[in-house]
Amino acid sequence: MTPQDNSTAITGNSIAMSSPATLTPPAMPLKKATDRSRASADADTASLTSSLTANSGSSSTVTTPPPRTVTVNSGTVAAVGNTSGPYRCKDWCGKKHYSDFIKEGLQSQGRPADHVIMLFESPSTCNAESSFFNNSVFPVHDYPPAPTFYKTVLAPCRYTIMNGGTYPSFLQAEAPEGLMEHWERRVPGFEKPTFVKELNDDATVYAYLPLEHVRKHLNDPHVHYHLAGKAAIHLMTADAPRQLINTTDERPCIAKVTHSMGSKGIFIIRDDEDDNEFRQFLEMSGNPSFVVTDLVDICRNLSCHFFIHPDGQITWIGSSENYKDAQGEWSIDSIIELDAQEEQKTMQLPYARTVADYCLSLGFWGFCGIDVLFNHKGEGYIVDVNPRTTGTSPSLMLAKRLKDEYGYQAGIMRRSAKFSFRGSAKELMEQVEAINDEGAVRIVLLSFFEVSPNQTYLNISVHGNTLEECRVLIERFAQPNL
User: Fold this and answer.
1) Measured between alpha carbons, how far is 391 from 413 in angstroms, rounded to an integer?
2) pLDDT at 182 over 80
């Protein structure tokens, strides 16, 4: 990514600001979820239904819910359609941690809640060195694979910062030296987590994604795998891009591998050259299944993050947004604006409720996130559903606590393996803490991993009073890899 043009500079540990760069999204009318015509069901619908029923031992069937009219009023949503009446959506209180939510969910179902492990590491089908190698039942499309340390250290630590101490977090490797102490110093209300290196057969595992070698998942792994696939989205909602039958008849279109990870396996097809590139990718990555949809005219790119309780209630963690950079490309950074949270919640809650209803209809509950693209007419399209803890949720939780503690209104998170700090982990920590000691902003290292004295990979969250001061620090500490 090319950094946005800005007039902000850093001298030593100080931030110098002049005229701010523009980071505000374009204005657009706000519309609620619409009753657009649903794409014709593909031939895979019947096989998905058969597979889920056979594998889960459940009589649940995969059906397409009817379009619904949704009204938003002071945080309470009345849904008309396949639900029985009003439900509650409450904002996250700022105190509960990931493991607290899971324990409450188990207790509400009358299930054993005394031996649970939180597992935030994603599986791989391309990297046999990862802790969890899915190669048959639940393959994921992570080609080309991320570095092993990203899966085994960076990502699990990023989530563990908000796990709390109710249940331990699985971590194959050692936590980076000094990371826990950094969290204790810089995270308000921090509750120290614990780690385990092994999974006992009698442990119930709350898994980031279904794992072939885990004996006892909290949710049915076959249902979980279905929900994580791109092919399931058009079964959940009418508010999704129109499905196409191929990549040739209507262009531009977008092709997505069904269980892609980390934005891999997603291609915009404008011409035959793009199509050939996509076909080559499929061949190199083992010919995974894929879906093809319309390309949405994007005005705003929003994500929301929430917890689905077993009784159907939702706890709203918050929303984030992606902006375009100076080159007109969508930035990989997650932008958090605290004064925009209520507006963003109003925009996305109807879509989140539709997804939650579908998940619950299959017996799935837990953390979830969705990506909703809005066009210039204000029409929203669900383009991604992540039935798991989402990568931005730790920063959203941090943002709320830091706002309550210091009044900070803005935050930016960067967590891409394409960026790193140009120095050692020790140098990284020293520079970060020097800026934190000044008190104008708060930099939180969610995780880091030193690969050489000149390069340390990191997941970083910066919080302050303006997006501009956050952005300049993001650019300083997380630079494009050389």
Assistant:
1) 9
2) yes
